[in-house]
Each structure stands twice: as structure tokens, then as C-alpha cells.
Amino acid sequence: MSEGIPCIYLFVDESGTHGGSHAFVLGGLAIHEDDASRLQQALDTLVIDHLDRVPPNLDEYELHAAELRNAKKPAANKQGPVSVWARVPRQTRLAILEDAYKKVASFQCTNRKLPPALFGVVVDAHFRSDWDAIEKEQFAYEVLLNKFDVMLKTLRTREELPNRGLVIHDRRVIAERDIQTWTSEWRATAGKVGQLRNLADVPLFSDSRATRLLQVADLVSYALFRRYRPGAEDGAYFDILWPLFHADGGAIHGCVHYSPSYGQGSCSCEPCSARLATESRQLFLRKARISNAQGDQLPPVGVLDQSE
Q1: What pLDDT, on a 0 to 100 scale, did the predictor assign at position 76?
Q2: Which InterPro entries match (predicted)?
Q3: How far apart are CA 25 and CA 35, in angstroms?
Q4: What are the distances in angstroms from CA 141 to CA 3, 93, 123, 151, 257?
Q5: Which of 154, 157, 162 is nearest to 249 (CA)?
Q6: Which of 24, 36, 110, 205 is most buried by its number of CB atoms within 10 A?
Q7: Residue-wise over 52-71: b if at least 16 C-beta within 10 A, else e?
């Protein structure tokens, strides 16, 4: 990076762009440049071990969650590209998928102060009914990038670990120019959430076959998408990843769920519960500080913290 400042990459992918989806989901993996190639190699090795061979077209064995679960052999009377996973037994594919989630969760970073961190934003289809699909996507991207930006700021100011952020997104041709334009605007001035001050550039776009780390972003977005699927929730993959979402001071900041039920306090999912707990704690501490400033007799804040 310029001026010798190291880089933290944020690899991003989305789910729920098809019509009628229950939510728009963004999933991201933030990883330091010193660890990027190591995780890439670990995932390559995982695929090779399960296939019991080194295929010459290893890059085509993409860790794409939906494809691993549902790859089907083509009908005899149909032409077109065939997934390489279609000829791999489903049991093997599912084992690869689960082990990929576990490999990400157990990855050991080079610097313990710079562990990989996950980010996720889920915008329910019924959230802000006055917004169209583009407005909801724009909001989701702004939230995701601001949370990444805040993490970079914290590393710089509190940990004295200056790093620039570079966002790498899976190819999304129809939206790439919009995403880059939005980001340029948020770097120049604050949007709905805040101003981006720690990104090296606008998001770059790449084919997910080029790097396993974009494939990890797909695993994150897929896990979130299934976690919030109405009537058929499946949190198995999400549960593996949940401890990795970015946290600060014990509060989870890296994963948020926006739905009409949040304001009513009726959503009990992990991100909403964590968010409510954080907001309640902050409100409680503000009231305690005000009461102490007014001379009321209250226990010290440290004692209050321990009782929560």
C-alpha cells in the first residue's frame, strides 16, 4: 500500500438479489494482508484433501455454498456449462462445505491483534416499505462499509495499528458502477450512517474463482440468508461463524439485522439480541453518569457493569 501502510482486505458477496427474496444480505470477510494467502492455501488444501487428488482445474472447484449443496448432473437432452461439482458425490460436497466453514472459524492469524473478522448486514424485505430495492441495497452497503471503516479507525487510534482498507467484491456487473459511485460519495461526505475515512479506494470487483477469500464471503452471505429464511430457518452454518463477527468490548458490531420487528423488540435473533443488549447497557450507563453528576447515591459504574 502507499506510504508503507499495510492493508486489511474486505471481501464481499451478496445474497437475495432475485425477485421475491425475503431479504437482501451482504456478507464480508476482513483479513490482514499477511494472512490472506495463508487462508487461501488452507482452503485449497481442504478441497484437494476431500477430492483425494490435485485437479488441474482447481480454481473451478469453487467453494460456492449453493452449488456445493445443490449441484445437479445435467439432463441428457440439455446443453450448456456443467458444474464440476455435479460429478462429485453429494456427501463429499456437503463435507467440503461444512469443513470450509470450520476452517474459516479455526484459522489462526499471524498477529493476534489483527484476527480475521466477519461482517454481515441483513435487510428484511419488509424493512422500510417506503424504500425500493435499490435504496435498501444502498443502505446495506453503507452500513457494511461504515462498520469496516470504524474497525480500521479503532485499530489505528486505540491499538496504534494503522491499516488502510481495500474492498474486493464479487463481480456484479449491473451494480458495480452504482456501488463505486456510492462509495465515492460516502468518502467525500457522510451519508445516512457516516463518512468513510479509512478506505484506500472504491470497491474493486473480481471473479470469485480468482480467490478463495471471495468464496468465504459467499459462505458468510449464504449462512446469513439461510438463517433468516422464513418458515425454514437453518442456523447451522451461521452458528459456526457467529463468534467471528466483529466485536469491540464484548459488543457485537459486525452483524446487524434490519426488520420492522426490531423497533418493537420482538426479534430474538442473535444480532438483534446483541444490539438490544448493547443499547440497553449504553442507556443504563448514560443514566448512571447523569445521576452521579447530579450527586445521587448510586453504586460505582464498575459495580453496575458486573450486575448486568
Answers
A1: 57
A2: DUF3800
A3: 26
A4: 28, 31, 10, 16, 13
A5: 154
A6: 24
A7: eeeeeeeeebbbbbebbeeb
Closest-CA residue to 258 (of 69, 78, 126, 146): 126
Residues in the chain: 308
- What integer best gives the mean pLDDT of the chain? 89
Residue whose entry in the numeric block shows the C-alpha cell 457493569:
305
Beta bridge partners of residue 206, listed in sequence order: 170
Task: State the pTM of this model.
Answer: 0.88
What φ, ψ does residue 205 adopt, rounded to 5°?
-125, 140
Tell me how far apart the alpha carbons of residues 241 and 223 are, in angstroms, rounded to a whole number.
8
What burial class does residue 218 get, using C-beta atoms within 10 Å of its C-beta: 0-12 exposed, 13-18 middle, 19+ buried?
buried
Residue 72 amino acid letter: K
Q: What is the C-alpha to C-alpha distance for residues 66 and 218, in angstroms, rounded to an integer?
A: 9
Long-range contact pairs involving 53-57 (C-beta distance under 8 Å, separation at least 24): 55/84, 57/84
DSSP, collapsed to helix, strand or coil, labels residue 98 as helix
Give the model's pLDDT for residue 302: 41
Give the model confidence (pLDDT) of 40-62 as tens digits: 999 999 999 999 999 999 999 99
| R_g of the chain computed on alpha carbons | 21
Q: For the chain, how far is it from start to end, CA to CA, in angstroms?
A: 43
Residue corresponding to grid cell 449462512: 223
Give yes or no for residue 173 having a pLDDT over 50. yes
Name residue 196's amino acid: L
* pLDDT tens string 197-222: 999 999 999 999 999 999 999 999 99
